[in-house]
Amino acid sequence: AQSVTQPDIHITVSEGASLELRCNYSYGATPYLFWYVQSPGQGLQLLLKYFSGDTLVQGIKGFEAEFKRSQSSFNLRKPSVHWSDAAEYFCAVGALAGNKLVFGAGTILRVKS
Amino acid sequence: EAEVAQSPRYKITEKSQAVAFWCDPISGHATLYWYRQILGQGPELLVQFQDESVVDDSQLPKDRFSAERLKGVDSTLKIQPAELGDSAMYLCASSRKRDRANEQYFGPGTRLTVT
Question: Phi then psi for A45, rounded to 5 degrees?
Fold first, then answer.
């Protein structure tokens, strides 16, 4: 069965610093991978997705992610974090059957000024 | 920009009471999903509809939870009776098609607290 692991529960970075959030997946075929962001009390917003092709994908709000099949990873990065990026970030894999998303437990990002 | 609507945003109920949540997906979206997000965890799919039909309810606790989408548009999720462990955020999402390449759009959620 597919699963997603986000090893870091909390991460704190300084405003302007770079960011990398880790995501590892377990999946028996070519995965469809997603990163979502959730602000407090809000629903989830899609940041970016990977289906095939170029392993470096660009998303909204200056985020990017790199798919590495050999490491079963899909890490999210941003070169310079803004205070408004403070939120919870979820990595997810799309199941082969239907359109079920399997989410990781999330990483809470805190940004200090 | 079209959005998924959910109501209520917050609900407090006592154990053993009945509670219902409502979701209105983006117009034209055939697939509707209900997820449960327990504090500190990622969302978990409870039930998935294609039009008015349930296509996946394998994780729905059917002894107390029910869901319907009678006309293939809006949907209601019901819990009866509510238990303390049901306290969570209930998220509704919709997508144009039932295909993992189709983006799921999420509503703001309903925060349920069972006392």
Answer: -120, 135
A39 to chain B: closest CA residue = B108
What's the pLDDT at A64?
98
CB-based contact, B56 to chain A, within 8 Å: yes
Whether B109 contacts chain A with CB within 8 A: yes
Closest-CA residue to A48 (of A80, A9, A82, A21): A21
Question: Which residues on adjacent β-strands are paired with residue B77?
Answer: B21, B67
Are A94 and A103 contacting, i.e. CB atoms less than 8 angstroms apart?
no
- Chain A residues within an 8 Å CB radius of B91: 43-44
Closest residue on chain A to B43 (Cα): A103
Number of other CB atoms surrounding residue B9 within 10 Å: 11
Q: B57 and chain A: CB distance < 8 Å anywhere?
A: no
A95 and chain B: CB distance < 8 Å anywhere?
A: yes
CA A52 – CA A96 distance, rounded (Å): 14
Can you state the percent helix, strand and coil of chain B, rounding each to 5? 5, 50, 50
Question: Nearest Cβ partner of A51 from B97, B101, B108?
Answer: B101
Per-residue model confidence as pLDDT tens digits over B39-85: 989 999 999 999 999 999 999 999 999 999 988 899 999 999 999 99
| Average pLDDT estimate for B18-40 | 95
What pLDDT shows up at residue B99? Answer: 76
